């Protein structure tokens, strides 16, 4: 399957964007990754002549909006209030355009459990799972699902707090973590197979990427530090590539998402493609995946940032 075809950018005048706040940093566990992404986006927009400046966190953003210093927001605030609907609700109420999905799509997809519930209701494939609240018996849930499993927070990203449990003795670190964690955890059947991701840009699925870490799995180190992780793009070919793009777009839209984002998928040796999660403010670092897929489609990093910012001119789905 060939790379998707994109129409020319709708806008050629950087002044049309006005004063753009590149929102980054914040207080979530993904702060450092967000700062890295934000610096790259800021540099790309400024290189295209956009009047963009960095803003670190929601209080600073609100202060600048009150001062009348912001016309629109490029949200690259990973995790927390940047992706849980709080930012989106604030900006919607203040009528400040912003990148990424709206309130519902952002809040829903930050919560892996609720996202999977929507996918199941929509007839889309995702691994079997159990919800773990504080005090629940994690060992019993693992036995019910059957090993191997992954245990992870329902509302964190960047592989923060993720445990790969292959055998009974691997469970104790996850149990210890759960005892001190205030939020809900997700325990799901481990997919035995290949890992893929598909970027979504303006209603079009980008070429898939197959992720091949040098280690046993794609953890935080493989995502942001290691230089030996392989990224094969497109990850599939022919009808299989068409299928993963169609599935990813359906998963994105069924979760009330619009604009841009990324859908993580795995291909199980027996069950086929399985949806894992959606990221509504994907990384834009040197290791990040949406820029890699966009390049395969003929869109460089500066143009990618421009096109994402252009989406702020469009009305969101109700």
UniProtKB/TrEMBL annotation:
Cofactor(s) demanded: Mn(2+); Mg(2+)
Amino acids binding Mg(2+) 2: 277, 279
Cross-referenced InterPro entries: ATP-grasp (IPR011761), ATP_grasp_subdomain_1 (IPR013815), D-Ala_lig_Van_CS (IPR000291), D_ala_D_ala (IPR005905), Dala_Dala_lig_C (IPR011095), Dala_Dala_lig_N (IPR011127), PreATP-grasp_dom_sf (IPR016185)
Pathway linked to the protein: Cell wall biogenesis; peptidoglycan biosynthesis
Cofactor detail note: Binds 2 magnesium or manganese ions per subunit.
One MF annotation (Gene Ontology) recorded for this entry: D-alanine-D-alanine ligase activity
Subcellular location: Cytoplasm
GO biological process, one term: cell wall organization
Residues that coordinate or bind Mg(2+) 1: 264, 277
Catalytic activity: 2 D-alanine + ATP = D-alanyl-D-alanine + ADP + phosphate + H(+)
Leading EC class: ligase
Residues spanning the membrane: none
PANTHER family: D-ALANINE--D-ALANINE LIGASE, D-ALANINE--D-ALANINE LIGASE B
Function of the molecule: Cell wall formation.
Family: Belongs to the D-alanine--D-alanine ligase family.
Name the UniProt record assigns to this protein: D-alanine--D-alanine ligase
């Amino acid at each position: 399957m060939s790379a998707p075809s994109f129409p020319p950018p709708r806008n050629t005048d950087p002044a049309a964007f006005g004063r753009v706040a590149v929102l980054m940093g914040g207080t979530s566990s993904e702060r450092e990754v967000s700062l890295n992404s934000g610096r790259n986006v800021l540099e790309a927009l400024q290189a295209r002549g956009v009047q963009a400046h960095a803003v670190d966190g929601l209080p600073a953003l609100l202060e600048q909006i009150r001062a009348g210093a912001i016309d629109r927001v490029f949200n690259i605030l990973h995790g927390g209030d940047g992706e849980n609907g709080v930012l989106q609700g604030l900006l919607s109420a203040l009528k400040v355009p912003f990148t990424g999905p709206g309130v519902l799509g952002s809040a829903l997809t930050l919560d892996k459990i609720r996202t999977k519930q929507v996918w199941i209701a929509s007839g889309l494939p995702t691994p079997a799972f159990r919800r773990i609240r504080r005090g629940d018996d994690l060992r019993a849930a693992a036995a019910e699902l059957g090993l191997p499993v992954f245990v992870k927070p329902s509302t964190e990203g960047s592989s923060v707090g993720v445990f790969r449990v292959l055998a009974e003795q691997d469970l104790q670190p996850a149990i210890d973590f759960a005892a001190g964690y205030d939020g809900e955890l997700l325990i799901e059947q481990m997919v035995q197979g290949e890992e893929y991701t598909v970027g979504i840009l303006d209603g079009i699925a980008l070429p898939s990427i197959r992720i091949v870490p040098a280690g046993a799995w794609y953890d935080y180190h493989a995502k942001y530090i290691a230089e030996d992780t392989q990224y094969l793009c497109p990850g599939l070919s022919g009808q299989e590539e068409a299928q993963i793009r169609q599935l990813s777009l359906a998963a994105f839209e069924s979760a009330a998402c619009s604009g841009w984002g990324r859908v993580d998928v795995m291909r199980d040796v027996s069950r086929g493609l399985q949806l894992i999660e959606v990221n509504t403010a994907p990384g834009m670092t040197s290791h990040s995946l949406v820029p890699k897929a966009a390049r395969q489609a003929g869109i460089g990093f500066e143009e990618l940032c421009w096109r994402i910012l252009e989406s702020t001119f469009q009305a969101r789905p109700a």
